[in-house]
Every structure is written in C-alpha cells, then in structure tokens.
Design brief:
With 415 residues, the chain is α/β, with parallel strands linked by helices. The protein contains 16 helices and eleven strands.
C-alpha cells in the first residue's frame, strides 16, 4: 500500500490532493506535497467564506505525525485571497490553523502523549521542541474548554494546593459527582476573588443545580460559598477536621517533649510522633509497642491522643441531633482540658458547628477523600513537569491531566 493511499484513508482533505511523496535528509524524513483541486476555491481565513485567489506564496512545511519513525511533512504553497469583507488574507487550510508549523493532528498526537510523559520527554521522543509540546497541550485544553459542558453538575469540592515556593497557591474546584470526577476551575491564590471567578462562568441553571459543596475551613471559601450557594448543603468533611486534631496532637507533643528535655526527664516521647498520629490498625509492631508504653504515663500528649480517639465516635452517629449533642459535649471537655491546641480546635468546631453537622445531612454522599485524591494527582503533575515558571503553564497542565476535557473524533486514532 502506498503512502498516498494511507493518507487518503486516515487524513482526507476536501478540495486538496496529495502529490508523490519524496525522501529527504538521507531517508530520515518524507515530504508530502499537497495541491488544490482544479475546481477548488480558497477559503478566507478571516470570515471562512469562499473567495477568489490571485497568487501563490512560498511553500510552507507542516509537520505531521511520524510514520515508522520517519518525520513526515506536508508541503503546500498557500494562496492569497481577496475577501470583500476582510481584505487580502491568506487562505484557510483544513490541516492547520493560523501560522502554526504543526498540523492539527500532530498537535493532538503530542497532547495525548503529554498526559503520560513529561513534556520534555515527549519532545525528545518525537524529535520536536518543548515549546511545540506546550503549544499542542494548550491547543487541546482551549478546544476542550470551549466544547465541554457543565450541565448536570450536582456536587463540587473546593480546595487549594501549593504549586510554587513562597506560599504560592492555586484554588481548585472539582466536580465530584458519582461517575464524573474532574477539575473544572483553576485560579491563582486562595482568596474570595479566586473562587468567585468560578461562579462567574456558571449559568443560573447550573448554579441552582448544585446540591452539595465540600470544602475546608478556609474563611475566604466559606464566605463565597455562603454567598453563591446558599441553597446547597455545605459540608466540612471529616478529613479536614481530623487533620486539625492531628495537628493539635503534634503541637502538644512537640511542646511537651521540649519541656521534658529542659527539665531533665527521660525522653519517653522520642520517636513517638507517628504512634500518636496513625490509626491503631495502621501501626507497625514497633509503633504499637511504643504506643502501649506511652499510655502508661499521664502525659499531655496522651490526653490529647485519647481526646482524638474519643472524637472518632462522632462519625458513628446517624441522627443530626445526637451528633450535635455529642459535638457540644466534646467541645466542653476540650475547653476544660487545659490543652491550648485542643481548645483552639474546639473553638473552631463550635464556630463551624452547622457546617460540620451537614456531613450527616448529606448522609455521607459527599467526601473530601475524592478531592484529596485529585489534589495528589495535581501535585504529581507538578512534580512530573519539574515545576512551572508561570501560572499559565500550570493551569494548562492541570486542566489537561485532570479536566477530563472532550476531544474531537478522528477517522483514525494514532497509538
């Protein structure tokens, strides 16, 4: 089967004809000339209308998907058109947009590989440049964002991740519906303005269709969600609450270990961090033995640990009323514990009491575990690309890997 026959099967262009391919560069690349059909008329690249052409420009080479390890280029002399609306323009061709050197199919090819490999790795593998890979991914993301739909959006999760040193954060909004989990919004910073931009792209029907929201205790997020989604059930998930309790235990442990060292006591808290923070079922044998030894002492760290374990009963309730009663009693005991980090957690729980109880009103149908899993994938994307110099590049990479964006259907899919 000849190369012309293959191209006509997988990449046939109306009004254009493939010429005879020719070998170049010691057999390392192939040029495929393209000529317009005799009855074909050029199309204005400005308005998309058929217009008369009047001369030819210099031949241009458009890089196509490599075949059998060989570089393939389309060679075509663009025609000028005289458009009554746009003036003198260069014609529009179906295999490329604007002044790009890569064909559209090759850009989609590079973008698909960029989901699995680093951008630099894709560039080296297919003998192109990092900039070409970046432009291909950006092209795929822009096309996907323009063609995606948010109808049927019922549950969202809001969180932030650090993407650069110096406390540089990204606000991320995920769709966490059953059967559809994807990234739908990115903004720089973790401010009210960053999250409010998400709601500006939603229609009233989509906004009113959101029934559940999951977030942490960031006050900027709480303010915007209360303003924009007052009708939805806003859940402060157990992951973030237990995280704050663990942070309080660790803070108590560090201060107590420092005080015991200064007073000359035996360092019984040494190597005890993960004994107190991990679940009992996840402890190693050595950590389990260490924990049993610690429980013999009347330490502030042990008291904080037992308070955390007692709070675990909160998630076993089925009734909102009984869960609220337990929460109030636990906060009262925490305020009397003389452990300042635990008292700070109790004050925070009291402040957000109704949002915490929404976890029971949602009947466990929404969880931040999905959000944290997507956050880990976002961090992996950042590490795989060895960081980003600009926010725009980070935004494109995250949309590309986590956005589940639609792609056009082609006659043939390259592996």
């Amino acid at each position: 089967m000849q190369l012309k026959t293959i191209l006509n099967r997988i990449e046939r262009f109306k009004s254009f004809v493939y010429g005879t391919p020719r070998w170049l560069e010691m057999g390392k690349s192939i040029d495929v000339p393209i000529t317009p059909r005799k009855n074909g008329h050029p199309i204005c690249s400005g308005c998309g209308k058929v217009c008369p052409g009047y001369d030819l420009l210099k031949e241009r080479r458009f890089e196509y998907v490599p075949l059998w390890g060989l570089m393939v280029y389309f060679v075509y002399a663009m025609r000028r058109v005289c458009c009554p609306e746009c003036g003198v323009k260069v014609e529009k061709v179906p295999w490329c947009d604007g002044k790009h050197q890569l064909t559209n199919r090759f850009r989609w090819f590079l973008a698909s590989w960029a989901k699995d490999l680093s951008w630099l790795g894709v560039a080296r593998r297919f003998h192109t440049t990092w900039d070409h890979v970046y432009r291909s991914v950006r092209y795929a993301v822009e096309w996907g964002l323009a063609h995606r739909t948010l109808t049927g959006l019922m549950a969202i999760g809001v969180d932030e991740i650090q993407y650069k040193l110096g406390h540089r954060y990204l606000t991320l909004v995920y769709q966490i519906d059953e059967g559809m989990k994807r990234l739908i919004w990115i903004a720089e910073g973790r401010t009210e303005q960053a999250l409010r931009g998400f709601f500006s792209i939603l229609s009233d029907d989509v906004r009113n269709g959101i029934r559940f929201v999951c977030s942490d205790m960031c006050q900027a997020y709480l303010n915007v969600i209360a303003e924009q989604l007052g009708h939805a059930v806003h859940v402060l998930d157990r992951f973030h609450i237990m995280k704050k309790l663990n942070e309080a235990i660790d803070q108590v442990r560090r201060s107590e270990a420092k005080r015991m060292k200064e007073d000359g006591y035996e360092p019984v808290l040494k190597h005890s961090r993960w004994c107190l923070l991990k679940r009992v079922s996840n402890l190693t044998k050595k950590q389990a033995v260490k924990l049993s030894e610690l429980l013999r002492y009347n330490l502030r760290s042990v008291r904080a640990y037992l308070m955390r374990e007692d709070f675990q009963r909160f998630w076993e309730y089925a009734s909102v009323g009984w869960a609220g009663r337990f929460l109030d009693q636990w906060c009262t005991r925490a305020m009397r514990s003389k452990l300042e980090p635990m008292k700070a957690v109790a004050r925070s729980l009291r402040t957000h009491r109704e949002l915490i109880l929404n976890w029971f009103r949602a009947k466990g149908r929404i969880s931040a575990g999905v959000v944290e899993g997507l956050n880990n994938k976002a961090k992996l994307t950042t590490r795989k690309s060895y960081g980003f110099r600009t926010y725009k590049v980070a935004e494109i990479a995250l949309y590309h890997n986590l956005g589940a964006l639609p792609e056009p259907k082609f006659t043939h899919e390259f592996c």
